[in-house]
Amino acid sequence: MTMREVAVTAELPGRAVEWLEERCLVRLNAGVQITDENTLIDFIGSADAVLTLLANPVTDRVLAACPDLRVVGNCAVGFDNIDLVAARRRGVWVTNTPDVLTEATADLTWGLILAVTRRLGEAERFLRDGRFHGWALDMLLGSGIQGRQLGVVGFGRIGRAVARRAAGFGMSVAASDVDEHANPDPPARFMALDELLASSHVVTLHTPLNEGTRHLLDEERLRLMPRGAFLVNTARGPLVDEAALVRVLEDGHLGGAGLDVFEMEPAVHPGLLEREDVVLLPHVGSATEETRAAMAELAATNILAVLAGEEPPTPVVRPTDH
Ligand code: GLV
């Protein structure tokens, strides 16, 4: 029997490559990230499987040009870089890496909530600039969060993990997509999105990006938020109209924003870069040694399962789905 071929678009942490090499022929891209269709098509070639990162555009054109492909194992929980409809139509499995990154991403979200409400980035720049001349009662005052409402948009695995941590900071939780009559765990008050935005001190986004959620927070919705409120996004940049966010920050409506993701990633709106009231991170939500190794290993496990004719642990699209 000929060995199955797996194209891996980037070097991986943990034992993922080792596991793949035990049973397959592995082709590894050790060069620059593949961000365009043609390079991706050339790289996949006649491989049976591809292990992708979220910068790799797995479009219908790519799938059409790589007819031997049986599985796309995305090393991310999000899968907006993959055309799921085309994959389904072409009988290609798509898998992702949920669960293993939930806690790390929730921790980072709280890092951003604290950083933006307590002005940590600005305070560190202040000190490094040599402007700290001693403790002062009125220096770099932030906003308290205790007793305030955290609005969680997207009450899935990560949203719930973020909400669980809210009790430790004395915040109540509102969520826009829990069943009004259910008893959510952790506890959260159901609110329609607009009501949630209008009543939360901090709004945090944890919903997947798709055509229905693109610019979910447009200017009108951003202006529903109370004056001085904060927006945190560790999900996907295009959930927020970034130009509108800049305007809403510029006129002082919002207190600040903590962003780990951007609309035109890796580009960041210049209007954000110059502001002191935003905290900007380079998409590091799941970036711990342990979590990144677990993600790569889960992506490899998914691929190996499909190639062995088994059900992968975390499928997004099964070729039998209609
Ligand atoms: C990262 O953004 C992921 O989707 O895992």
* Strand line-up of the largest beta sheet: 8-7-6-9-10-11-12
- Determine the structural class based on helices, strands and strand pairing: alpha/beta
Approximately how much helix is present in the residues? 25-40%
Give the overall silhouette.
globular
Rg on CA atoms, Å: 21 Å
Low-confidence stretches: none
CATH topology of the largest domain: Rossmann fold
Major sheet: size, sense and barrel closure?
Answer: 7 strands, parallel
Number of helices: 12
* Strand percentage: 15-25%
Mean pLDDT: 97
Bound small molecules, by name, code or SMILES, are: glyoxylic acid
The CATH homology group name of the largest domain: NAD(P)-binding Rossmann-like Domain
- What string, H for helix and E for strand, traces the elements in order? EHEHEHEHEHHEHEEHEHEHEHEHE
User: What's the CATH class of the largest domain, please?
Assistant: Alpha Beta
- CA distance, first residue to last residue: 31 Å
Quickly list its features.
single chain; 322 residues; alpha/beta; Rossmann fold; 2 domains; 7-stranded parallel β-sheet; 6-stranded mixed β-sheet; globular; binds glyoxylic acid
Summarize the structure.
By secondary structure, the protein is α/β, with parallel strands linked by helices.
3D architecture notes:
- The structure is a single chain.
- The chain has helices at residues 16-23, 37-44, 60-65, 84-89, 102-117, 120-128, 157-166, 193-199, 219-222, 242-250, 270-273, 289-307, and strands spanning 4-8, 24-28, 49-52, 71-74, 93-95, 149-153, 172-175, 189-190, 202-205, 230-233, 256-259, 278-280, 315-317.
- It is of the alpha/beta class and 322 residues long.
- The chain has two domains: 4-100 and 289-321, NAD(P)-binding Rossmann-like Domain (Rossmann fold, 3-Layer(aba) Sandwich), CATH 3.40.50; 102-280, NAD(P)-binding Rossmann-like Domain (Rossmann fold, 3-Layer(aba) Sandwich), CATH 3.40.50.
- Strand 4 (71-74), helix 4 (84-89) and strand 5 form a beta-alpha-beta unit.
- Helix 1 packs parallel to helix 12 and helix 5 (102-117) packs across helix 7 (157-166).
- The chain is globular, with a radius of gyration of 21 Å.
- The model has no long low-confidence stretch (mean pLDDT 97).
- Bound molecules: glyoxylic acid.
- Glyoxylic acid (GLV) binds at residues 54, 76-78, 101, 285-286.
- Residues 54, 76-78, 101, 285-286 line the site of glyoxylic acid.
